[in-house]
Write a structure and sequence with these properties.
This protein has 120 residues and is mainly beta. 12% of the residues lie in helices and 35% in strands. It has one helix at 9-22; strands at residues 49-56, 62-67, 73-79, 84-90, 95-98, 104-108, 115-119. The protein is globular, with a radius of gyration of 18 Å. It starts with 8 loop residues before the first helix and ends with a strand. This is von Hippel-Lindau disease tumour suppressor beta domain-containing protein.
Amino acid sequence: MLKFKHVNFAIISSALLSFAISAGVPTANAQSKKCESESVSISRSGKIATEITFINQRSAPVRLYWLDYSGQRKFYTLIAPNNRITQSTYVTHPWVITDTKNNCLGVYYPDGQPRIVEIL
């Protein structure tokens, strides 16, 4: 016969949240600020492929989000200070850069040809 011990899921959830925060994984934050243009930006058709390069020239890491077809942020990656990432995308797909607290630093749309965005 199997015996089960009572597990306190609140403690497990709290531990997982602490791990996610310490690992730099984005979590929902009611205090984070959105850019004004973010509220009206959504991805549209993905017909014209291109790429956009983000160069983080700040002294702290930044987060890169894609705004999906309903305008919701989808986390892609963390860009360390003095690093860059080139992202394949489509002309009509907006990207959001935030600080590590998810405060919007800018909303960027790719161009028909490769674009470079410097994050200052």
